[in-house]
DNA-binding transcriptional regulator, XRE-family HTH domain (Rhodanobacter glycinis), 192 residues
Amino acid sequence: MQKRSIQRGRPAGATTYEAEPAKAFGAAVRALRMEHSVAQEDLANLAGIERSHLGKIERGTHMPTLALILKIARALGCSAADLMVETESRLAASVS
Amino acid sequence: MQKRSIQRGRPAGATTYEAEPAKAFGAAVRALRMEHSVAQEDLANLAGIERSHLGKIERGTHMPTLALILKIARALGCSAADLMVETESRLAASVS
């Protein structure tokens, strides 16, 4: 059997993924999308991303970057600040 | 000379990094930090990140994720929505 070398870095299974903010953001995006009655496919096209990517974001399994937040906000016809207000109120509700 | 194999994926040097949003966010963070007269080191500690990481964010060479935006906003004593308002106004000014 081959001897395993010592590997530097984080141990297997270690994660710093914070699900809560991603989930709150995803729920905010989904709610705003439903409000406008826009299909996931159409919103993804407007934002210039893949539908599957948007799906992951709405489910909270993908942490969006600032660039993506801005793109999705534009596609939803609102500002990123509006999207953050929605996200933070959901986050506050989930914490308390 | 060794023959180079065909590599799948994006060509070398290809990038989708969008510097504008990252720079606008960085400038907003720096401006708010200066307003509160907080040292980079102290703000990084409050946000629970490395000082060098915060430095990269302020210079716009690192794209922040949603989780990071929330952490930095909390450390600055404002909401992520406030930070987005600042970012978007800077972004609008740089575009026009």
Observations:
- Residues 19-95 of chain B form a domain with the 434 Repressor (Amino-terminal Domain) fold (CATH 1.10.260.40).
- The mean pLDDT of chain B is 90.
- The interface with chain A takes residues 18, 21-22, 25, 63-67, 69-70, 79-85, 87-88, 91 of chain B (CB under 8 Å).
